[in-house]
TrEMBL record, chain B:
<dbReference type="GO" id="GO:0046872">
    <property type="term" value="F:metal ion binding"/>
</dbReference>
<dbReference type="InterPro" id="IPR036163">
    <property type="entry name" value="HMA_dom_sf"/>
</dbReference>
<feature type="domain" description="HMA">
    <location>
        <begin position="1"/>
        <end position="71"/>
    </location>
</feature>
<protein>
    <submittedName>
        <fullName>Heavy-metal-associated domain-containing protein</fullName>
    </submittedName>
</protein>
<dbReference type="Pfam" id="PF00403">
    <property type="entry name" value="HMA"/>
</dbReference>
<dbReference type="InterPro" id="IPR006121">
    <property type="entry name" value="HMA_dom"/>
</dbReference>
């Protein structure tokens, strides 16, 4: 499998670096004893580290791309020619080290598609010639009748012919509340039925289903996503030819080949080739310790440029599970607690997904509940009934109560409407055929959502958009609470992708925050896909470029700040390296600098860029981290830095 | 003019750019295959073909001859 192949490739890189390092050390150890042996060992080291670089350089040149590899190769060969074997070994060794470090932070093979496919049930039960047969979901014929038992995944898109059930559709629609299904309702492949057997007419099967289309969209996004050109590549495109031209011109003008080669060697310092990888590794390492898992250095560069953020609602801005939001008696003689106790007692016998939050709330309020309800009856379509304190209590949707012949009445209707416009789901309680109360359930907004959105605004993110599969009323209710003004509601997974594309077409760099299967196409299409952990489905985690593993949304702006800091330090490092080059080149051309002194300056600049990158491992001074109110051990800014590097290395090596 | 249809085969053995040419070549050599493209990132082999002239099993066999195991996928 691809994963193991990657790790062997990575091992080979490290082996090359280690072998080169050992050869260099051996060379220096034996230098006093024999100069030729020293030179031989260092040239061998340069060959070990440099051969893969040269191979890549040639491969790049074939497709007319001039990379940093070409410069390293030319410089190393030049260094050997002018007898600077240590410089040849150093520049190739450092570049190989940089490559190995970068490989640790490179995008690993994603398993998103495999996980999406796991949502497809193994078999579908189809009625053929009066008998039930199990077939592969894709083998179901259009128009055939599929039987779905409670707890099973639905294998096709279609219409319910018979039966009632509550279906959890979060995978496909992102809707947090289970949806009541009855004959005539539409159901989707990959969603899970609870509470009743359904007979479904298969309208769309396999690749034509909503889930099939999600899979296909994610696939296309992954196939067409051009890997972002990394800073180093963009830089090398003009730097390498520039240096070569300079060396050639200098050589022609002076007729001094040695001078030309010296210029080449000086212009390709170890500091330059190590400066970017070391910054990326430090940035990724810092993120990992803050619960920001970056799946590749290139995503840090992308995240630094974000101008627009799009949030999925359910499970990203909200907790992603229904909670009791209001308990409202419609009868003066009844206390809210009493109402809740009745509802919870009845719900004890129910398998309905909305039963759990009602029972939890009653237990949290310390209301005594029996072992099980007396005379429990489950009605078709999710209504439940039991005898509590000697009278019959019925809990169900307004529709169910009407169909049970109970008059809902104007007072209850008004309460229902009020909750519905606030984006809540409601159940009614009837006692002895009279409506006595309403319980409203809602998906609670995350505590830190409003602050996370405000932080992003402060960080200069121009546009903040909400994308939701839910109804507009629900979307706007949440948007108001978190401070988002642009809401796109009732979106299919493909619509979400289209909104991201539209933002990109307007010139925005978009970060998409999501957690569900239905967000996967948008996560894969956005410039940076960010999965918000804790609630995130494995599919979203795999599709995203960055995962906030703590599930704290306030980390969102921190991730963007970290990305910007990393890019800043990257640029500083390149500046340090280039300044060193400029000084040395001037010195060489003026005849002031000799190779030995030049090399010493080089090594000092290597040390400088490494130390500069390690600053990323400390908290930033204008700390966006500190104000995320977390009980963390305070970090001493300097004392811990050295020790923490090793922690990070360990964390990365064992991950 | 027969009706063409698109079949997707999947293989988790596609890792190198060199296998693209091998597989596409084998598929194009089949009578009835109009277009074949290999996506290494996702392991998808997309084939437009005339199902009358060349079956899905034939396509799988052709990919097999190139040295890769592939299978059609329902979703």
């Amino acid at each position: 499998m691809a994963g193991s192949m990657e790790s062997t490739r990575m091992q080979r890189r490290w082996v090359q670096v280690a072998v080169a390092a050992i050869l260099i050390a051996a060379g220096f150890a034996l230098r006093a004893w024999s100069e030729p042996v020293y030179a031989g060992l260092l040239i061998t080291a340069a060959a070990v580290a440099g051969t893969p670089i040269a191979v890549r350089a040639v491969r790049d040149l074939r497709i007319r791309r001039v990379g940093i590899e070409a410069l390293v190769t030319i410089a190393a060969i030049g260094a050997v020619v002018i007898g600077e074997v240590w410089e040849a070994a150093a520049v190739t060794g450092l570049f190989a080290l940089g490559g190995a470090l970068e490989a640790m932070t490179m995008g690993r093979t994603r398993r998103a598609l495999a996980l999406l496919l796991e949502l497809v049930p193994e078999t579908a039960t189809v009625r053929r010639d009066g008998a039930e047969v199990a077939v592969a979901p894709a083998e179901v014929g259009e128009g055939e009748t599929v039987i779905v038992r409670p707890g099973h995944r639905i294998p096709v898109d279609g219409q319910v012919l018979l039966g009632r059930a509550a279906v959890d559709e979060q995978t496909v629609t992102g809707e947090s509340m289970p949806v009541e299904k009855q004959p005539g309702s539409e159901v989707y492949a990959g969603t899970t039925a609870a509470g009743g057997v359904l007979e479904v007419r298969a309208d769309r099967v396999g690749a034509d289903t909503a889930l099939g289309r999600i899979i296909h969209r994610v696939e296309e996004a992954q196939e067409h996503k051009v890997p972002a050109q990394r800073f180093l590549e963009r830089f090398a495109r003009w730097y390498t030819p520039g240096v070569v031209v300079l060396a050639v011109v200098a050589g022609l003008l002076t007729g001094d080949v040695r001078l030309a080669l010296t210029l080449l060697v000086i212009a390709c310092p170890g500091a330059l080739v190590i400066s970017i990888p070391i910054s990326v590794v430090a940035g990724v390492g810092r993120g990992a310790r803050r619960g920001i898992l970056v799946k590749g250095g290139e995503h840090l560069e992308q995240a630094a440029k974000v101008t627009a953020v799009a949030f999925d609602k359910t499970g990203t801005l909200t907790e992603g599970r229904p909670e009791v939001a209001a308990v409202e008696p419609l009868d003066d003689g009844i206390e809210a607690d009493e109402l809740l106790r009745w509802a919870a007692t009845v719900e004890l016998g129910s398998e309905h997904p909305l039963a759990t939050p009602i029972i939890e709330r009653a237990r949290a309020a310390g209301l005594g509940l029996p072992e099980r309800p007396d005379a429990f009856v489950a009605h078709e379509g999710g209504g439940v009934q039991a005898t509590v304190d000697g009278s019959e209590v019925l809990v169900g949707t307004p529709m169910l109560l009407s169909s049970a012949g109970i008059d809902v009445g104007p007072e209850a209707s008004a309460a229902l409407e009020r909750h519905r416009s606030a984006g809540r789901t409601t159940v009614l309680l009837a006692r002895g055929a009279r409506v006595v109360g309403v319980i409203a359930l809602a998906d609670r907004v995350r505590d830190d959502a409003a602050r996370a959105v405000a932080d992003l605004a402060r960080a200069g993110v121009r546009r903040r958009v909400m994308l939701t599969g839910d109804a507009a009323a629900v979307g706007h209710a949440v948007a108001e609470q978190v401070g988002i003004d642009e809401v796109h509601a009732e979106l299919s997974p493909e619509d979400k992708l289209a909104v991201i594309r539209a933002l990109q077409a307007e010139g925005e760099r978009v970060a998409m925050f999501g957690d569900g299967v239905n967000d996967a196409p948008a996560l894969a299409t956005a410039d940076v896909g960010i999965a918000v952990g804790a609630t995130a489905t494995p599919v979203a985690m795999e599709t995203a470029d960055v995962a906030l593993t703590t599930g704290r949304l306030v980390r969102a702006s921190e991730a963007i700040h970290l990305a910007r800091r990393t890019v800043r330090i990257m640029r500083q490092n390149v500046t340090i390296a280039l300044a060193t080059v400029a000084v040395l080149l001037t010195g060489v051309l003026a005849g002031e600098v000799h190779m030995a002194g030049g090399m010493l300056v080089h090594q000092a600049s290597v040390l400088a860029v490494i130390l500069n990158a390690l600053r990323l491992l400390r908290s930033s001074r204008n700390s966006h981290e500190r104000n995320s109110h977390e009980n963390e051990e305070p970090e001493s800014a300097t004392a811990g830095a050295r020790r923490r590097v090793t922690d990070d290395e360990e964390a990365m090596l064992t991950s | 003019m027969q009706t063409l249809r698109t079949t997707n085969l999947y293989s988790n053995e596609l890792s190198c750019p060199s296998c693209i040419g091998k597989i596409e070549g084998r598929l194009h050599a089949l009578a009835g295959v109009e277009q074949a493209s290999v996506h290494t990132t996702t392991g998808r082999i997309e084939v437009r073909h005339d199902p009358e002239a060349v079956s899905v099993a034939d396509l799988v066999a052709a990919v097999g001859e190139a040295g890769y195991t592939a299978a059609p996928r329902g979703f």
